[in-house]
């Protein structure tokens, strides 16, 4: 097994594939360098002289600059590498010379569910969506008390709780309403019970207006303060929803109807050269078969956004991407936060040094296909191929946003290890 990987021919560092002891001769891509100190797994070692202030190159891209002279064999990490990032950047559209949709492949099929509105699903579940955090425990008890309704083709009864829906105003309130309505529309939910308290800011009429047209057999509402026994009332409603959901059976559906979210968390120095490129290849395969993929975690694109923006299919999509990237940076700056303070202690322990280092690994999940669209938080995927979604790096928020965008499942790469899950099935 090789000791290290030289990702790009122009890189001046290699990544240790396993711990390298001081004094070990490392041979890779015609280079022979003796380690001057212990190099932990996933961490970087200089293979060329790097002067103080000179860029450290990994993935063929600057991931920061050296803060001291480094000889070949030096461990390159937070003690001697610093970010190049600052604030907003003025971008220009320079489409990649080979920018074009990937060759199409006849789509295979998968065994899924066909909803009455024509949409495809990979699960046949009943969801309980609370409109306010005050009813979270009620929703959990309703789920626990009604597991006997999970029979036949019904695959689960779940609730997705949250602390919002009251004591919110303006944009925050609107975002909560928009996201919860998007979850109610999700095709993996064969049937949905929307659970209100009654006195919350997010009132029933507001929610119905946000939801728009809906199938009254599929979506039911319960306001706890309007009934004497909310558990009995919920039971009666769930029986109706179970009868509706039980009609659906698995059938062959083209892969072209799938929407797959792509996420990473608990990343380390190997994520960007193992799991993330694998997800990127899958994304390309999905695009070739007419399917859709979703890439988010905008702050974890900072420093590597050039990889993506030059792949925008046209100027209109590029402008949307530019506004998304700089809008997020402006949000940080307006709250007196630096844009580059992202890598976590676990990221750093695993070999990620700067945000550029993390971002260059993160965007590998996007593969090589063109960016076909950029969509807002809570908005649905409407364009086939690779989509960028407005969302944070936070695992819980970004994965929920991908679910709200219509992701049937989420491919989640992790180097350090995380048990995180989302409303959509989450494959690690």
TrEMBL record:
Name by which UniProt lists this protein: Altronate dehydratase
UniProt record similarity statement: Belongs to the UxaA family.
Pfam families documented for this protein: GD_AH_C, GD_AH_second, SAF
Organism in which the protein naturally occurs: Faecalibacterium prausnitzii
Annotated ranges, domain SAF: 11-82
GO terms for biological process, alphabetical: D-galacturonate catabolic process
Record keyword Translocase present: no
UniProt keyword ATP-binding, yes or no: no
Keyword terms, alphabetized: Lyase
InterPro entries: GD_AH_C, GD_AH_second, SAF, SAF_UxaA/GarD, UxaA_altronate/galactarate_dh
């Amino acid at each position: 097994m090789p000791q290290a990987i030289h990702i790009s021919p122009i890189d001046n560092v290699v990544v240790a594939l396993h711990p390298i002891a001081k004094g070990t001769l490392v041979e890779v891509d015609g280079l022979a360098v003796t380690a001057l100190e212990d190099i932990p797994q996933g961490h970087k070692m200089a293979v060329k002289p790097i002067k103080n202030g000179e860029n450290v190159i990994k993935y063929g891209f600057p991931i920061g600059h050296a803060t001291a002279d480094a000889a070949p064999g030096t461990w390159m990490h937070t003690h001697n590498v610093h970010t190049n990032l600052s604030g907003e950047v003025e971008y220009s559209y320079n489409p990649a010379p080979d920018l074009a949709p990937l060759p199409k492949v006849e789509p295979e099929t998968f065994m899924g569910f066909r909803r009455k509105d024509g949409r495809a699903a990979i699960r046949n579940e009943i969801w309980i969506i609370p409109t306010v955090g005050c009813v979270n425990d009620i929703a959990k008890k309703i789920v626990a008390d009604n597991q006997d309704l999970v029979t036949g083709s019904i695959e689960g009864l779940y609730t997705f709780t949250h602390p919002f829906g009251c004591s919110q105003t303006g944009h925050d309130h609107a975002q909560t309403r928009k996201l919860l309505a998007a979850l109610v529309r999700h095709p993996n939910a064969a049937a949905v019970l929307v659970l209100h308290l009654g006195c919350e800011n997010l009132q029933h009429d507001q929610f119905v207006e946000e939801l728009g047209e809906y199938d009254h057999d599929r979506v039911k509402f319960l306001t706890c303060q309007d009934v004497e026994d909310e558990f009995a009332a919920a039971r009666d409603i769930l029986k109706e929803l179970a009868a509706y959901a039980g009609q659906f059976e698995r059938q062959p559906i083209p892969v072209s109807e799938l929407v797959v979210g792509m996420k990473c968390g608990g990343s380390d120095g190997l994520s960007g050269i193992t799991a993330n490129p694998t997800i990127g290849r899958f994304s390309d395969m999905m695009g070739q078969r007419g399917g859709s993929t979703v890439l988010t975690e905008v702050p974890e694109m900072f420093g590597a956004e050039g990889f993506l923006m030059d792949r925008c299919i046209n100027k209109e999509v590029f402008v949307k991407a530019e506004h998304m990237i700089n809008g997020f940076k402006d949000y940080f700056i307006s709250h007196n936060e630096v844009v580059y303070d992202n890598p976590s202690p676990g990221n750093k322990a695993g070999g990620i040094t700067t945000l550029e280092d993390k971002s260059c690994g993160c965007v590998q999940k996007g593969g090589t296909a063109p960016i076909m669209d950029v969509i807002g938080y809570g908005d649905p995927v409407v364009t086939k191929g690779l989509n960028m979604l407005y969302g944070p790096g936070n695992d819980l928020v970004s994965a929920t946003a991908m679910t709200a965008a219509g992701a049937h499942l989420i491919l989640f790469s992790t180097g350090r290890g995380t048990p995180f899950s989302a409303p959509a099935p989450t494959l690690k």
